[in-house]
Amino acid sequence: MDLLKKTGPLVILLALQLVLGEEVARYDNYKVYQVTARTKQQLETLNEIQMNSDAYIFLESGHKAGDKFTVIVPPHKLADFAETLENEKICGWVINSNVQQSIDDERNRMQSKRLKGVFDWTEYHDLGEIHAWLDKLAAEYKEVELVEGGRSYENRSIKGVKLSYKPGNPGIFIEGGIHAREWISPATVTYILNELLTSQDSSVRKIAESYDWYIFPSVNPDGYVYTHRRNRYWRKTRTRYPAGCFGADPNRNWDFYWAVAGASKRCYAESYAGPKPFSEIETKSLSEYINSLNGKIQAYIAFHSYSQLLLFPYGHTSEHTPNHDDLNDIANATVTSLAKRYGTEYRYGNIYDAIYPASGSSSEWAYGAQNVRLSYTYELRPMGGYNGFVLPPEQIIPTGEETLDSLVTLLEESEKRNYFKM
Question: Is the bond leading into 382 cis (omega within 30 degrees of zero)?
Fold first, then answer.
């Protein structure tokens, strides 16, 4: 106790990591730039930097003139990056002058909250706390059954729950945390699960009891743990590859138009698609679990951050899906509903056009390989800004509230179009 008073929880955490031989990634004096590619040449320059240099972390990327890029630039690259902007006449400005300060503030709050042993939505939780909470729900509610979507590379459980009030309901699959650093995703998924169990709102009760819910807050558990212990901005899995690099992007690794667009073949790249489809045990085992449900799943909803977008297939091509008009109309109603509570504005559209070309994603695999006609991906708060993935915890509950509002609308609009049949 005296040690805690003198040093504080963050210092103790770092000391434990050093004892365990873990080197913590630090971002002292790393700066976050927001830049705009106004011409095709500027766009090509920024995309070339992203594809060929591992020194930078691209938090947001663009694929057409006028799009914004948000980039973390390390101290030793600041001069080079500034020179590139000047030479190419790219408009850019610093929106965060010290990334590490944001991370330190987040960790200090989490450690303080953790000492109280409370699971709520005023702070982010690590994997152990999320799994313990799921265990507690299964023990307290007869409607909740623990399920496992497989094991990770480091042998962690891909733990989820099935929530069912009566047999024979259409199934809805909710996936969170496939990209490790997107902490608002597992937080929002657990918030929604809690509301499906406890809310007295009639519209929430209706969707809770009308469907069987398969809810997985963190489907990339190794990566999520790594963001808590070692590197807050880690995105991928933790598979060890012979080249000496670690991990593949689990949302580029699914076996549907794998590596066709928006994925890298470079092992060190954040968008590395892996050496082959389903090379990552996390995606392979989760896909096998979904296969085992034998057509039960009628809607697949993935939660990511950030950008405030609601996306649907396709991502590998600009060609539209056969039910594009329905998906578009449902998305329009959904984001309109989301904005009512706090005025949060979302854009929507097919992945290829609304954000960037990207293939091998879980939501597109669900649509194309599993024939799940309702497949959506939320890119949650924020729209942009200097925090990016380090979203202040006071925004967790508002994010959960508005997202649940929108989910109610998404399902109501889908029912009107007769998408749920068993």
Answer: yes
